Amino acid sequence: MSAILAESVDKTFRVPQERTHTLKERALHPLRRTRHQTFKALSDVTFDVRKGEFFGIAGRNGSGKSTLLKCLAGIYGVDRGRIWMRGRLSPFIELGVGFNQDLAARDNVVLNGIMMGLSPREARARYDAVIDFAELREFEKLKLKNYSSGMHVRLAFSVAIQVDAEILLVDEVLAVGDAAFQQKCFDVFQRMRDDGRTIVFVTHDMGTLNRFCHRAMLLERGSMIHLGEPHDVADRYLEINFGREPQSQGTAEGRGGDGEARIVEAWIEDERAERQTSLPQGQQLTLNALVRFTVDIEDPAASVYVLNENHVAVIVATSARDHERSGHFRAGEEVLFSFAFENVLAPGRYSPLFTLAHRGSGLDLMDRFEGAFSFVVTGPEAMGGLVDVPVGVSVARNPSPISPQVRA
User: Fold this and answer.
1) What is the CA 316 to chain-centroid distance, rounded?
2) Residue 370 — φ and ψ, nearest 5°?
3) Contact yes or no for 287/266 (Cβ under 8 A)
4) How far apart are CA 204 and CA 169, in angstroms?
5) CA angle, 354 as apex, 350 and 355 as ends, to 5°?
6) Prediction pTM value
7) What pLDDT is attached to residue 370?
């Protein structure tokens, strides 16, 4: 059974090119016509959310995520299409809307609880739970105008989760407070998920998307481009987010080296030896460079530097490791240098830099080849490191005591 059903939803905004700021301007130019531009925020969006499902909506800034959520909440009307809801609704879209800055926490909690559907008695009865969850007991008598922005959001989130709604619309509200409070928010949503609440969740965090959601949808420029498993949506999101191809610098002009050999082509292959532009973590990948020699060369050294978005070399490899010899190559000969490794790179976009040097220190370059292509690494969750190496984690209850000699 569907708790939410949206069919062919369109939403367009009219943006005035000229604005009338004062009454005087309006009086002096009563017949002036205001010209408008139109901006299509949503285009033919169709999806359903099943009862008890945690449904994710992902997309870049400006893709229409928040607009769609406001259409579901009834804040915006749709220009075309239809939306059905089955159940009591609670939107977590703009936390703190309706707070009175000249009132203390208790009055604001009660007023907001009533606005969100609680009776006055219910709102007052839940005050202690709200203020304790927000960790604001020592500030409860302060007027809200003396609260920090983080305290505002924590109080608003604490009020919102007290409403017994069947359908929740959540717009990026898990990034509130410090790390400890964020974990409390995660625990709340995990409990709601386990209780079978229907939740629509907008996020940029692909780790959170994979952690909570049963299904997910990807929006781009107001259109739905993918609907399915969260990990598939996360992969597509990363491909789009890092999908801007850099200008090619792998040309003869401006390249370093003496030109006695040139890298004529470079590409990346997956474990099936097929050329790719994006690769998932945990699989074998191979970086290839096709080299053409213009003179006879003895034991050239090919190297690759895998650079991240900040131009930091995350992985470096060379064919001249431990003084290995690569062989003798004649003028006009073409040779393929390949570098294969397990993909432990963190999710993001990478650009390989290839160098070809004479035998020796590696500083006597024949060619330097950068910017010919880039590739995207996809994965379920970015842990924050430069690489994501598989790590075994164990927890031991009552571990054996360490001997005094070792402790010393």
Assistant:
1) 27
2) -135, 145
3) yes
4) 15
5) 150
6) 0.61
7) 83
